[in-house]
Amino acid sequence: MIRQLLLVGALALAVALGTWWLGWWAVPILGAAWAAARYGAYPSATAGVAAALGWMLLLGVGALQGPMGEVSRTLAGALGVPGWVPLVLMAVFPAGLAAAGARVTRSVLPLLEGERGKANAA
Prior knowledge:
By secondary structure, the protein is an all-alpha fold. The protein is built from five helices and no strands. The longest helix is centred in the C-terminal third of the chain and has 37 residues, at 85-121.
């Protein structure tokens, strides 16, 4: 259990750094890599949680450098939603990306492994 939590924390840090360096598209790639490495029983869920934590880490760093609350309120006003909605969406978006990347990978891997097995048998 502790090992799994540490791995999720490491993935959250990787998502934060990957997003900072490469942009949002690093999130589904890291989710797919997580699933390909087969960490844990629920790779899609853990990848999603780690991605949300990673982006919350980025949000925290941004809040230390500037008025993140004001940005959230301004964005919420432009969208016509309460001020907390942009913050929730900032967690839901990367969670969905990472979970989708992990899920697609877990669905495709058995097909690829089956093809490799057929090639090795021939």
